[in-house]
Amino acid sequence: MRTDVAIIGAGPAGLLLAHLLAQDGIESIVVEARARMYVAARIRAGILEHSSVELLRNVGLGAGVQARGDEHRGIYLQWPGQRHHLDFVDLVGRSVWVYGQTQVQADLVAASEAAGRPVYYGASGVGLHDLETDQPYVTFTDTAKAARRIDAAAVVGCDGAFGPSRAAMPAGTRQTWERVYPYSWLGILADVAPSTDELIYAWHPDGFALHSMRSATVSRLYLQVPNGSNVADWSDDRIWTALATRLGHGHDGWQLTPGPITGKSVLPMRSFVQSPMRYGRLFLAGDAAHTVPPTGAKGLNLAIADVALLAPALGRLVRKNDTALADAYSDTALSRVWRSEHFSWWMTTMLHAAGDPFDEQLQLSQLRWVTSSTAGAAGLAENYAGLPFGL
Ligand SMILES: Cc1cc2nc3c(=O)[nH]c(=O)nc-3n(C[C@H](O)[C@H](O)[C@H](O)COP(=O)(O)OP(=O)(O)OC[C@H]3O[C@@H](n4cnc5c(N)ncnc54)[C@H](O)[C@@H]3O)c2cc1C
Prior knowledge:
Radius of gyration: 21 Å
Distance between the termini: 37 Å
Bound molecules: flavin-adenine dinucleotide
Low-confidence stretches: none
Largest sheet: 8 strands, mixed
Number of helices: 12
Structural class: alpha+beta
């Protein structure tokens, strides 16, 4: 097969890139290791930044978020005895939207199928070749066990943290940075109306807790747990009791309403960056190049920002053989990536119990400052609601 751009991975980065390229008249073929249903069902991120929503609207993918998303003006930050609302719209004129990654993925799949764009699900043995030439190609075995080859002008690795693209860059050409945190999140989905109108981020000496939501009838909640924790050790009762304590059930009459838990998982917390995000005709986008701990709600948004930058660069490369934007892609993308890495690390270290009494006092001091100083609050709001693309 021959196409303009071969895309590895049909997650949000891969399918959105294919959509953006198609709008510019650029063809692509997407190769995905997993089955379509598996990709569609993964429960992951849930918050879209202002710029992400603007982009989806501008490219004809905004109907879902408009109809089923929930616009939030800000978040609550709390510690025992205190709850403060930060209003991002007042502070920086930007809001965020609750709209699950599964819904974003469903919208992208629907657009891809409506347009008849080729996506090979269930591909195995995906390999990247001749990346340092201007005739790179991708090989794989399809679900009928047929060997396939895609020749393209560029290959884009949108294959997440465990795909082959990252490692296809020779060792001497790339640098990586990593931080593993000494705690994880136990996440639950529950069939119960959220007990809050906007997300609650709670510092507590027992550990961090987050009350998020997916819809008016589905809540998403998280507890900080030690690394290596097993969901089997967390009964529904134990989870709701810990959430009630950490989220301040009973304080000022606020009630946490428990409900049937429909999903439980443990999510390790990690920061990772690989640089550059380009090697020859291979470009990396999304989790293939970077990972953030979920505290700042940045992972999905960074993937969207990467492909928003990459699509026009590939358009110029393919159509005019003009490499200016492609050459600038890695540096420009990494500038935003490192801002988000810092914000995610900052939110994480401000809110998670680390077992050090001195650190606890620093965290509480930071929380008091962020919730009482307009300058402090605006800094958090600007980063959380997301900087405009290109910054
Ligand atoms: C369990 C979990 C929970 C998360 N929770 C949050 C959250 O609460 N908030 C937040 O902001 N972010 C969260 N994230 C991060 C967010 O989901 C990611 O940042 C986002 O999915 C990035 O999109 P992507 O398209 O770059 O990568 P992915 O969504 O990972 O997509 C990569 C795709 O590549 C495919 N692939 C892998 N290997 C191959 C191969 N060899 N060949 C072909 N295809 C391949 C994968 O199957 C996958 O479909 C979470 C991530 C995980 C894993």
